[in-house]
Amino acid sequence: MGQPVSVEIIATDALTGAERALWSQWVAANPAYESPFFHPRFTEVAGEIAPAARLAVLHQNGTIVGFFPHQRRGGTAQPLGAPLNDYHGVITAPGVSVGLDAAPDLVGARAFAATGWAGPAEEGGAVTRSRTLLADVSTGWDAYYTGRKAAFSKFLKDKERARRSMERDLGPVRFEAASADPAHFDRLIGLKQAQYRRTRRHDIFACGWTADLLKALVSTADEDFGARLAVLYAGDQPMAYELGLRGGGHYHFWVPAYEEAGARYSPGMLLSMDTMKAGAAQGVHLYDFGFEGEAYKKYFCDLERTVFEGVSTAAVSCPAQAAFDAGAGMVPTGLALSVRRRWAVIDACETTTLGRVRALGAAATAMVGRSASPATAGALLAASTFSCL
What we know:
Layout: E1 6-10, H1 17-29, H2 40-49, E2 53-60, E3 63-73, E4 76-79, E5 91-92, H3 103-107, E6 111-117, E7 127-136, H4 141-151, H5 153-170, E8 173-176, H6 182-199, H7 209-219, E9 225-234, E10 237-247, E11 250-258, H8 267-280, E12 286-291, E13 303-313, H9 319-328, H10 333-349, H11 353-369, H12 374-385
Parallel strand pairs: 4-6, 11-12
Antiparallel strand pairs: 1-2, 2-3, 3-4, 3-5, 6-13, 7-12, 7-13, 8-9, 9-10, 10-11
Helix pairs in contact: 2-7, 4-5, 9-12, 10-11, 10-12, 11-12
């Protein structure tokens, strides 16, 4: 970064109006920050809800050159709002760059656990490169849809038939772009929790504060920023729900769920299509589908971005990290990454030692049930034994 940098750690709501304007100016000037997660309102809202929320302000020669929102879990720093934060990094002035390797030292942590680092990073070791997929609708919905249909005619014709079949079997299909009904929010969370139980994943909403964060973002929905809960109906019955986060012209598909009764009609995909069509008419030009992996995303997305995930560690000794890395290193790369992701989710959600121990024990049992090696389970349990992470 050139000149020495000093760091001030403050509350997430302590910025002055001028500092907030500076933040917004830097975000607008850098395409890497084109996500609602970099909007200053996300930090303000998440900072009110997420435990141990903090904001690092970077100074160089007496001038502010960066903002770094984060949260602390013991000796580890994480993205603010994790595990719900999909894009993060140090928001810097033009010409200033802060890599993932510097993150722990900036905030005085033993490690920083990234899941979607949008800044510079060195791939290798505990850090891996990932892709996120996006859809550009800046030319308008009709032009976008015509182009996708030319490339993937069969897939989109199947979705059109599914819509007609749903309407024939279940009743008129209608779309609500932003539901304010608390029952819809509660149903979305309930469906996600049922999905976590089925798939033996950690329930990110059991801790309470994560659902509270989503509620706060829904109530913050204004023209420029906030969460929207879209709902697709067939007749009088909701068939699919999706909570998305908007920041300016960027819309991030975030928390989806659908009713089993409508599964055969692909209600989630139909809801995404209706959301995109409605949003394009209201100034949304970019739809973010998150990380690659699900096959359906290729039919909608025509852009990609590179992010980094993994743990950047400061130069300190940590028995839990050493045990974790040793266990993870004894299994194939894909499973090692799964272990790391499970630990990151648990560490972010659970703010007490007892909560972490219980969650890690359940995760280890689930992974053994999925034919993971005992060493993998041991790596998870080792993390619960030591508190330095």
